[in-house]
Amino acid sequence: MLLGLPDVRTELARDPSRWPAAIEELMRLVSPNQFIRRQAREDVALGDQTIRAGDTLLLILAAANRDPEAFPDPDDFVFNRPQTVALGHGIHYCLGAPLARLEGRIALQTVFERWPTIRLAGELVYADNFNVRLLHSVPVATA
Fold first, then answer.
1. What distance in Å separates the CA atoms of residue 66 and residue 42, rounded to the nearest whole number?
2. Which one of 48, 68, 75, 123 has the lowest number of neighbouring Cβ atoms within 10 Å?
3. 74-130, pLDDT tens digit by residue?
């Protein structure tokens, strides 16, 4: 995604302290896990529906991260948005979230600093996975 956002890349080159905010926004826009499964512990009224204790729920994180009520202009990259659910929430918050953020920042910052003119040079190929967005290949050109 960042390969297609030249204004964001320019801002990150100008101010590298914005990388953590960029990582958060990238995770919101390209949710690593598309959905999670949960089981209701108690009855909950939601609109005109009642979720009963024991009901199985499929929570679409990718949709929640693009909810226009929570994120105005949800398809746009915006620095410093409110916290997303890309890595879960509450007791189900990802234990590895700090490490994932750190690894993402180090990897992307290193790539874009080392090859400032890097660009997409073909089609992205995703692994065959229904829930997790996994890139199989990202063809790029560095010159």
1. 27
2. 48
3. 999 999 988 888 888 888 888 999 999 999 999 999 999 999 999 999 999 999 888
Q: Which of 44, 36, 45, 39 is nearest to 64 (CA)?
A: 36
Assess if residue 70 is contained within a domain: yes
- Number of independent structural domains in the chain: 1
Residue 116 lies in a domain: yes
Q: Does residue 50 belong to any structural domain of this protein? A: no
Distances (CA, A) of 10 to 13, 76, 109: 5, 16, 12
**CB contact at 8 A, 2 and 112:** yes
**8 Å CB contact between 101 and 20:** yes
Structure tokens at 52: 């009963």
Q: Which domain holds residue 111?
A: 2-32+62-141
At 33 the pLDDT is 86
Does residue 40 lie in a domain region?
Answer: no
